[in-house]
Amino acid sequence: CEGSTCLLTMKETDREAVATAVQRVAGMLQRPDQLDKVEQYRRREARKKASVEARLKAAIQSQLDGVRTGLSQLHNALNDVKDIQQSLADVSKDWRQSINTIESLKDVKDAVVQHSQLAAAVENLKNIFSVPEIVRETQDLIEQGALLQAHRKLMDLECSRDGLMYEQYRMDSGNTRDMTLIHGYFGSTQGLSDELAKQLWMVLQRSLVTVRRDPTLLVSVVRIIEREEKIDRRILDRKKQTGFVPPGRPKNWKEKMFAILERTVTTRIEGTQADTRESDKMWLVRHLEIIRKYVLDDLIVAKNLMVQCFPPHYEIFKNLLSMYHQALSTRMQELASEDLEANEIVSLLTWVLNTYTSTEMMRNVELAPEVDVGTLEPLLSPHVVSELLDTYMSTLTSNIIAWLRKALETDKKDWVKETEPEADQDGYYQTTLPAIVFQMFEQNLQVAAQISEDLKTKVLVLCLQQMNSFLSRYKDEAQLYKEEHLRNRQHPQCYVQYMIAIINNCQTFKESIVSLKRKYLKNDVEEGVSLSQPNMDGILDAIAKEGCSGLLEEVFLDLEQHLNELMTKKWLLGSNAVDIICVTVEDYFNDFAKIKKLYKKRMTAEAHRRVVVEYLRAVMQKRISFRSPEERKEGAEKMVREAEQLRFLFRKLASGFGEDVDGYCDTIVAVAEVIKLTDPSLLYLEVSTLVSKYPDIRDDHIGALLAVRGDTSRDMKQTIMETLEQGPAQASPSYMPLFKDIVVPSLNVAKLLK
Question: Are 312 and 226 in contact (CB under 8 A)?
Answer without folding.
Answer: no
